[in-house]
Description:
The complex is a heterodimer.
Chain A: E1 2-6, H1 8-26, E2 32-37, H2 40-56, E3 62-67, E4 84-85, E5 97-105, H3 109-121, E6 126-134, E7 146-150, E8 158-162, E9 171-175
Parallel strand pairs in A: 2-3, 2-5, 5-6, 6-7
Antiparallel strand pairs in A: 1-9, 3-4, 8-9
Helix pairs in contact in A: 1-2
Chain B: E1 3-8, E2 13-20, E3 25-32, H1 38-43, E4 50-54, E5 58-59, E6 78-80, E7 83-84, H2 97-103, E8 107-110, H3 114-123, E9 128-133, H4 138-146, H5 153-157, E10 163-165, E11 171-176, H6 181-189, E12 193-198, H7 203-208, E13 213-216, H8 228-238, E14 243-246, H9 248-256, E15 261-270, E16 275-277, E17 282-284, E18 288-294, E19 304-310, E20 316-321, E21 326-329, H10 344-357
Parallel strand pairs in B: 3-4, 4-6, 5-7, 6-8, 11-12, 11-13, 13-14, 14-21
Antiparallel strand pairs in B: 1-2, 1-9, 2-8, 3-9, 10-12, 15-18, 16-17, 16-19, 19-20, 20-21
Amino acid sequence: xxxxVVDAMAMQRALTRITYEIxxxxxxxxxxxxxxxxxxxxxxxxxxxxRLQQLENVTVPVGDLDITSYRDDIEHDADHDxxxxxxxxxxxxxxKKVILVDDVxxxxxxxxxxxxxxxxxxxxxxxxxxxxxxxxxxELPIRADFVGKNIPSSQRERIKVSVSEIDDRDAVEIQQA
Amino acid sequence: xxxxxxxxxDGSAYAGEGFGAGATTSGEVISNLNLLGYQxxxxxxxxxxxxxxxxQPAIGNVGINHDSYESILPTAKGMxxxxxxxxxxxxxxxxxxDEFLQQHNIPGISxxxxxxxxxxxxxxxGPVKGSIVDVADAHAFDQLNATVLTNRQVDQxxxxxxxxxxxxxxxxxxIDFGLKHGILRQLSERRCNVTVxxxxxxxQDVLNLDPDGVLLSTxxxxxLDLGEGVLEMIRKVQAEIPLFAIGLGHELFALxxxxxxxxLPVEYHGSSHPIRRIITNDIIYATQGQGYAVIAKxxxxxxxxxxxxxxxxxxxxxxxxxxxPAFSVQFFADGAPGPHESRDLxxxxxxxxxxxxx
Lengths: 177, 358
């Protein structure tokens, strides 16, 4: 049984608020780059970039981070942490303020791997994390700077994020396992 | 019904039929272009001391219900309409418009070609005074010309004392400049535990209540007449607590952050202007009622971001502070009367408060 906890309107608002909070925190959009974590984080990252473009008339570089050995919707091997590849990023992150964007923040292992991948590319000035949903159950000392919605969840539940670019709609649902 | 007159300060007189109260009143004459919502309009305190001309030709046909009051004691000075109807088949109707106006001693006049009158008002400079009178003689015009319009509207309609509107949710302080009930209704729907403070409250008065959020309400008159104290309060509060401002509150928020205001050549009261939400580049409609607008060129872009703009007259309709979760809209986000599509600004306010808690 799935229950919608964030509908399309609320998702739009969350991304809008996150965009404004990014401007507040970074005192503008200078030196900002946005990196979306595949798959849905990429679309969220693009939406944030498009909002920044509307507001500030500035094109903020957007890149994709590819997760190679781990997907949220597949039972993963507990002994292996996810690997994140920054191979598709064709701009420099050195000295930049990096905003990592993911759909769901859970154990924190994906984010740790993403940060390593970004650091391998160069030394950013800072890394901030924006997530649509924080569901708790962290296994690493990681927290998000910008959160769309906190959804305290049981580990048996599944959080499903849909984005209209590749799914049939915008929504966040909770499913009982 | 008795023959009565609407007279204007330029010496013109319009004959019509009286309805509602038989009182003789004077005030600033303004036009309202909304098709719906005469009850919300006549009870909204932004129309304090004003005579409202309705462009919509049939007024009264849904009566008066007890869900749509925007104030307890309306203080508009009159209604000018083309046709007034006292037959209502609306299931919510409790009273006729005529009975309601009698209760509140507000005169109405019907049989006036309101659309012609509105066109004429658009060509006249600045605020236009008018009276609803029994006889349009020299004495009536002398009385009208001697009438001085007050600039203390906020003092006359806003609460002089704090009061609570308790619930169990977020703790919100509303600063009352003559608020419409729609604002309290939207906060109630979201279970906010509200304290309403008089507009003269200091920043310390606000902070002492330890609110999760602060809302600056709508209100009548000119924001330029309210003095520096309230601007100082806004500057201190916005740096500490999420802030949402509507209507007059928006104008004050702009002033407090260095922007300037200009009086519109003609006040705009309607809901037919498309308003662009810049961040998502989409269009919404909302009820608007404004005599002033923020001058776009005066906005300090290092302090404020323009968030909404009116696509018909180009006026700034929304602002947001760059450094704090503080934002404002010129239009009436409570949607009373509708369109309702901007009500989710109250959700945005709620989420700003939640985000602040972390």
